[in-house]
Amino acid sequence: MSRSLFALLLALALPVSAATQVQFSTSQGEFVVELNEEKAPVTSQNFLRYVEDGSYVGTVFHRVIPGFMAQGGGFDKELAMHPTYAPIQNESGNGLSNDRATIAMARTQAPDSATRQFYINYSDNRFLNARGNRPGYAVFGKVVKGFSVIEKMAEIPTHTVRSKGMKDVPQQPIVITAVKILNK
Q1: Which residues form the PPIase cyclophilin-type domain (predicted)?
Q2: Is residue 8 part of a domain?
């Protein structure tokens, strides 16, 4: 057997490291997100820290805009903000695009301000990508199962909660009831 054939067979026999998948259970159903730790290592590790410490459980999707995105992970049903770890470096220049069914980190106007809140794109929102010297919003994965659950969230009527200064809040809370890593 030639060395190149042996090397090929050996490579095929080695287990392929699967991308980390995270399952969300919500009051609307379940969906699975697959992380891209290769292109977004800082963002993925930050996200996994909140998954592993259990602090996404009990939070809600507090901002849902049909045709745009569903944002969650930072507030409870009373719209009280949950504690955060330190903000992370913005990885929006990683080559991943804010396309339909991708997950990205929410942030303030400051590029390196993302902490725990994330959003899932309902459509291709490429205007959120980095361009030239303008930082964008860091995509770090995609929904690989249950995107229909995300779409169902957009059917819930929203309102403004003036006392909290928040718009597009679902009138029926969309609660994250469990989060688990499927294959790490």
Answers
A1: 29-181
A2: no
Domain count within the chain: 1
Domain limits for position 174: 21-183
Q: Is position 149 within any domain?
A: yes
82 part of a folded domain:
yes
Task: Give the DSSP H or E segment for 30.
Answer: strand 29-35
- Eight-class DSSP state of 10: H
Contact assessment for residue 7 and residue 158, using Cβ atoms and an 8 Å cutoff = no
User: Does residue 11 lie in a domain region?
Assistant: no
The whole-model pTM stands at 0.90
Average pLDDT (38-50) is 98
Cα–Cα distances (Å) from 2 to 5, 7, 9, 11, 157, in that order, read 5, 9, 11, 14, 65
**Chain segment 139-180, per-residue pLDDT in tens:** 999 999 999 999 999 999 999 999 999 999 999 999 999 999
Say if CB 162 and CB 174 are below 8 A apart: no
Quickly count helices (H) and strands (E) in the chain.
3, 10
In the block, residue with structure tokens 């029926």: 172
CATH assignment of the domain containing 134: 2.40.100.10
For residue 74, give the DSSP letter. E
